[in-house]
Design goal:
The protein contains 10 helices and 5 strands. The chain has helices at about 55-80, 90-125, 135-155, 160-180, 185-190, 200-220, 230-260, 265-280, 290-305, 320-325, and strands at about 5-10, 15-20, 20-30, 35-40, 315-320. Strands 1-2-3-4-5 form a 5-stranded antiparallel β-sheet. It is elongated, with a radius of gyration of 21 Å. The two termini are about 25 Å apart.
């Protein structure tokens, strides 16, 4: 019997783990207690079965991951932030939700609109004619996407809170490796694994960026001009690229899953390799306390997935890891 597919995410002082049916967030509070939230994985558009087919499911999984990931981050902020940094409870959660919503809008602008407009602007500034439909334009646009992605990751890596978040990211990966290896799901076993994982969101972002260059090169030069003037045509083509993101995300999802399998094609492994390099920035070696959080989150998610959990949906707070792990 195949093992359930497990994914995860680092949150503020904690880890989220998900299986096909379960969704668990575990956070260590400032007072040392451990907050655990357990619930079913919230599926978007469950009745639209075709959206679960290969090459279509990637965009849906991305939407679900953003939706549930925002929820996990909001929960972690409510429990992990000391009162002097924003307070626990509704105000901290509401502020986090607004921040994440604005962050999503900014991310679309940063990774989709900015490279396109920069390419047009640089061409005009240097006097190099680059038609929006040309292969040259798409190559420069793709280069800007890669530079912005790497620059963004480097920029956030220098922030105050990034270090601990990246440690929890490493704890998440180590724990998933321990589970996938078939060994015991313990801190001691998880400790020996790598912090790098081929199915990481960092790798996924790079695959999306790289694949977008290929798709844009293959399709956009053959599209008709949408306006005779260069600037309006450039802006309209930028809007054409936005819906292309969904099939690109779908294909990227399938390629990333394929890369994690034994014997995956060499070109797929080559495609995800730069994403693994980027994970050397976005993951750090965790402490045992952080591994405890990741192990607990995954164990609770598996218990719910396998029907052996006795915990009801909702939030529970435990005095320490030993008590939480004993239930």
């Amino acid at each position: 019997m195949a093992k359930p597919y497990i994914g995860g995410q680092a949150v503020v002082e904690g880890v989220m783990m998900r299986s096909p049916k379960s969704f668990v967030v575990v956070v260590r509070r400032p007072d040392g207690r451990i907050a655990v939230r357990e619930q079913p994985w919230e599926t978007l558009w469950p009745k639209l079965t075709p959206l679960r087919w290969p090459f279509l499911r990637g965009a849906v999984v991305l939407a679900e991951s953003l939706h549930n990931g925002f929820s996990a981050l909001k929960f972690s902020a409510e429990h992990a932030l000391p009162e002097e940094e924003g307070g626990q409870g509704a105000e901290a959660g509401a502020g986090t939700s607004l921040f994440l919503a604005l962050g999503t809008v900014m991310a679309v602008g940063l990774f989709m609109a900015a490279p396109h407009l920069l390419t047009y602007g640089v061409g005009r500034l240097l006097g190099i004619p680059m038609d929006t439909q040309s292969a040259q334009f798409q190559l420069v646009d793709g280069l800007f996407r890669v530079v912005i992605l790497v620059g963004y990751i480097l920029a956030i890596s220098g922030t105050k809170d990034a270090g601990r978040l990246f440690q929890y990211h490493g704890a998440e990966h180590k724990t998933i490796w321990a589970y996938e290896s078939g060994g015991p799901l313990t801190v001691e076993n998880a400790r020996k694994f790598s912090t790098l994982h081929p199915r990481c969101g960092t790798s996924f972002l790079f695959v999306v960026v790289a694949l977008a260059v290929v798709v844009h090169l293959a399709l956009i030069p053959f599209l008709p001009r949408l306006h005779p003037d260069p600037l309006p045509n450039t802006l309209l083509m930028m809007l054409v690229k936005l819906p292309m993101l969904f099939p690109i995300a779908g294909l990227s999802y399938e390629l990333q899953r394929l890369s994690a399998r034994d014997g995956s094609p060499a070109f797929v492994r080559l495609l995800v390799r730069p994403g693994l390099w980027l994970q050397r920035i976005t993951t750090k070696e965790p402490t045992d306390d952080q591994l405890e959080i990741a192990v607990l989150a995954l164990e609770r998610a598996l218990a719910r997935e396998e029907g052996r959990s006795k915990a009801p949906d909702g939030v529970a707070v435990y005095p320490d890891f030993a008590v939480a792990a004993s239930l």
